[in-house]
Amino acid sequence: MVRETLANAARDWMEARAENLLPVEYFHVVFTMPAEIARIAYWNPRAVYGLLFRASAETVMTIAADPKRLGAKVGMTSVLHTWGSALTHHPHIHMIVPGGGLSPDGTSWVACRPRFFLHVRVLARLFRRLFLDGLVELHRDGQLTFFGDLAYLAQVDAFAKWLAPFRKTDWVVYGPC
Question: Domain ranges in the chain?
Answer without folding.
Answer: 2-169
